[in-house]
Amino acid sequence: MSKTFIIAEIGINHNGSIELAKQLIDGAVTAGCDMVKFQKRTLDLVYTQEELDKPRESPWGTTNREQKQGLEFSEAEYDEIDTYCKANNIEWTASAWDVPSQLFLRKYNLNYHKVASPMLTHDELLETIAEEGKHTFISTGMSTIEQIEHAVSIFEKAGCSYELMHCNSTYPMEPKDANLRVIDTLRQKFNCDIGYSGHEVGVVTSCAAVALGATSLERHITLDRAMYGSDQSASLELGGLNKLVKYVRAVEESLGSPVKQLQPSEVPAMKKLRKY
Questions:
Q1: Residue 172 φ/ψ, nearest 5 degrees
Q2: What pLDDT, on a 0 to 100 scale, did the predictor assign at position 1?
Q3: Phi, psi of 237 (to 5 degrees)
Q4: Between the CA of residue 81 and those of 58, 64, 97, 193, what are the distances in Å?
Q5: What's the half-sphere exposure (Cβ side, CA atoms, 13 Å) at 170?
Q6: 63 touches 56 (CB < 8 A)
Q7: How far is CA 77 from the centre of its chain?
Q8: Measured over all CA atoms, what is the biggest interatomic distance in the chain, rounded to whole angstroms?
Q9: Other beta carbons within 10 Å of 96
Q10: Mean pLDDT of successive 10-residue segments in the chain (276 residues)?
C-alpha cells in the first residue's frame, strides 16, 4: 500500500496571525504531514453585502465583514507562507472560494490544488483550477452523486488529474454520520483515488478511512480547540495530529498483503506449538 497523503488544514485557524500560522506549519512538519492548506476568499464575491453587514462580535470588530477581513492574509503574508513552507520542505496550497483568489494563487506555482465542498458546484472556479493541470483534491461534502459527476467531467475534459475526497460537512461531525463505506462507492463509481476529509473529534474515524483505502487524508489543525473560530472545535490539536500520523502509518503497515502465507515471524511459534 502506498503512503496516505496527509494534509493538515490550517484553514482560518490562524486567526489572521502569520506567527500562529507558522507555529501550525511547524506542527505539521514535526508530525510528518505532506502538506498544509489555507483558505483564500475575495469577500465581496463570496458573500452578499447584506451578509457582510450583519452584526458579529469578533476580535476585529462588530460586523461580519470585519471578522472575515481579519481572517484573510495579504499578499505579503502569503509570500511569507510560501517562503516558510519551502524552507521547511512541506507542500502548501489554499482552497480558493472564487476565481480571482484562484488566479492569485497561480503566483506561487503550487503543486496541488483543493476544491472545498461548498465550491464543488462553482463551474467557473472548477474550470479555472482544472486548466492549470495540477493534481486537485475535490471534497464532496453536501453534494449528490450527480453534482460530483458534473464536477469530475470538468476535470476530465481538461485532462487534469484529480482525487475525490469523501466528506461530511458538519463541524464537528458525529462518527455515526461519517458513512465511510461511501469511500468504496466513490472508488467504484469514478475509478479514481478516493481520500477522506474529516471534521470529527478524535482520530479513530480517520484511521478507519485509511483502513478502507483512503489515499489522502485531510484534518483541520489548531493550537487550542478552545480558541476563537468556527472551525476550532472540529480540529486536532498538535498532540492529536502527531497521534493521527503515527496511527495512520501503523494502519498502512498493518494492512500488509492480501496473500495468505506463513510469515517468517510465525516460524518460532510454529516450531514450539504445532505438534501435529
A1: -80, 160
A2: 57
A3: -70, 165
A4: 24, 25, 19, 29
A5: 11
A6: yes
A7: 21
A8: 80
A9: 27
A10: 92 97 98 98 97 97 97 98 98 98 98 98 98 98 98 98 97 96 98 98 97 98 96 96 98 93 93 91
Complete domains list, the chain, with CATH: 5-273 (3.20.20.70)
Do residues 164 and 192 lie in contact, with contact meaning Cβ atoms separated by under 8 Å?
yes
Please report the DSSP string for 133-170 in residue order.
T-EEEEE-TT--HHHHHHHHHHHHHHT--EEEEEE---
Cell representation of residue 96? 480558493
**Which cell is 93 given?**
496550497
Paired sense of beta strands 236-237 and 5-11, if any: unpaired
3-state helix vs strand vs coil in the chain, percent to 5:
45, 20, 35
- Does the pTM surpass 0.90? The reply is yes
Comparing C-alpha atoms, which of 246, 256, 177 is closest to residue 217? 246
